[in-house]
Amino acid sequence: MKRFVEIKNLEKTYYGRGILKRGKNAVKAVDRVSLGIEKKSVFGLVGESGCGKTSLVRSVLYLDPPTAGEVWVDNTLLGDLSRRGLRTFRRRMQIVFQDPNSALNPKMNIQDSLEEGLVNRGIDAVQRKKQTTRMLDLVGISPSHSARYPHEFSGGQKQRIVIARALCMEPDFLVLDEPVSNLDVSIQAQIINLLQDLKSELELTYLFISHDLNLVAYLSDRIAVMYKGRLVESGSTDEIMGRPLHPYTLRLFSSIPGMQADTAPEGLPPQAEPVAASHKKTTLGTGGCNYVDFCPMGDGDCTLREPRRETIAGSHKVACFKIGNND
Amino acid sequence: MNASSNNLLEIKNLDVSFVQRRGTAHALRGIDLSIAAGEILALVGESGSGKTVTSMNIMGLVPMPPARVNAGSLLFKGSDLIGKSHAEMRKIRGNEIAMVFQEPAKYLNPSLKIGEQITEMLVLHQGMSKKQAVERALECLDVVGLGKSRRVLNSYPHELSGGMKQRAMIAMAICCNPSLLIADEPTTALDVTLQLQILKLIRSLKAKFSMGILFISHNLGIVKEIADRISVIYAGKIVESAPNRDLFGSTLHPYTSALLQSIPDAGKRGHRLRAIPGSVPDAEAIPAGCSFHPRCPLAKEICAREMPLTREYGHGHSAACHMV
Lengths: 327, 324
Fold this sequence. Notes:
The structure holds two protein chains of two kinds.
Chain A: E1 5-14, E2 27-37, E3 42-46, H1 53-60, E4 68-73, E5 76-77, H2 83-90, E6 93-96, H3 100-103, H4 110-120, H5 125-139, H6 155-168, E7 173-177, H7 185-202, E8 205-210, H8 213-219, E9 222-227, E10 230-236, H9 237-242, H10 247-255, E11 310-313, E12 316-318
Parallel strand pairs in A: 3-8, 3-9, 6-7, 7-8
Antiparallel strand pairs in A: 1-2, 1-4, 4-5, 9-10, 10-12, 11-12
Chain B: E1 9-20, E2 23-35, E3 40-44, H1 51-59, E4 67-76, E5 79-80, H2 86-92, E6 97-100, H3 104-107, H4 114-126, H5 130-143, H6 162-174, E7 180-184, H7 192-209, E8 212-217, H8 220-226, E9 229-234, E10 237-243, H9 244-249, H10 254-261, H11 301-305, E11 311-312, E12 318-319
Parallel strand pairs in B: 3-8, 3-9, 6-7, 7-8
Antiparallel strand pairs in B: 1-2, 1-4, 4-5, 9-10, 10-12, 11-12
């Protein structure tokens, strides 16, 4: 029995330019990622820029079909759907991005923005008005402001409108890619509370992506840490926060401002300082562990094979030769 | 608050408005701020609070008009920067007061090599010869951790990663040995692991060169990590000011408390965040009395009528609130 969202060995490789289109210029943005999301839960994906989380999101939603692997949503294999079938199915999966400014068309008033998707589905005007009013109410924007344009709203309000627009399609699955990173601190809390309320009320399933470990830990039921296209550690929030294991996860933890003195995990190995500019892209055929260049525990053995995620305890998995059962 | 008159930077009662067609924006409503040499003062506030206007005023980069200084003084090394001519400010800017911004990509000239951008400043401000300037540039690049080789010196900004660009910008800022460094959200656009490195670098600048640093941020976690003292600004007024430990340990102002309580972390799982209702008021429409009163959980009738005065509470801790 599959979980509501089941991602299996997902791969996304971007090929370089030129006749040969392979080899040196290929970038493996997503490297055999597998994860499952239970219905009505929040799955948090943590990673820094360049780790492949945006590519992963685009592949999962089939905005950019994956190079390999399977994406199952509600027992439907997305790769099997026709173009038309995918378009219809896609209304069940919506996405909220980081920057509300670029997400909203500045030339459309928000009523039109919200209705756009519904118009495409052939919903009549009366129904559309009803739906959009309901969603604006849910996100806390007064429907009487619906004739206004995006620039007339604040950042936090725009993000609410973006959320309302996603909800108008009545999705089951919502992907949130850094939805509050661009917002002020006091507004972030409002939007986070809103997202939690909506999840309960509309029985939504979330894939939440952020570089903010505190935020991910607060919202998520399960967490996975992504580095250079691969998931290096995964588990329930309690498992990860209680006992982070992978050297990269530990590094993320120790980098959190304010966590330095009191809550940093025991026995933190000293960090290697990366100076190289090329730590973002992963080229094909690296062979060994991706993190070996910066890992305080990395040695020659780590470059021979790629570490697979192995279970340490419960649902806690880590991909590291130096930890647990990996040999 | 630091009563010493030997402060590197001493701002008293600075009141600045912007006169625009759509109304007058009262950006700074009488702020007090001071920084001593070798001290990091964090200025914390959300967008629209006046923190960037403050830094721009120190740098003399606010066009007057449409801005005008209604009152107050901005003393740098004892001399009032307000009223200085453009020529005088040009000598100070980059030379004695330098600034590092949020997005290094925006502030680095994409068509000049890093080395050229640094040596340009040295030749201009310090009258160095090209050879001397290159040597000094290499020194600065080394200080910021970009190595002693000429590799970065001869690179264009786009050839560097985000973290390296930020370090390069810091190298540019410190090359003339400024006494005061203004860092405006220097780590906001960076990944978490890079943030820490930049913070360490900034701390080392304070230690090595006794630089006074004004660190502007909306992130309380980062501020807790790096600041000696913290001033919280809201709608153009400093609402609370305290040494680092005291601001977090014995918070006085309801706005500061509310901000701290609204930050998510693993410990708050399962509970709703205590979000502050509403949003920061526009500078053109600041509520009467205490500007925070419409959003304040402790607000009483007096808060809507009267603006609270800033009171001292010992150990350099001050706050402006009727309810303290």
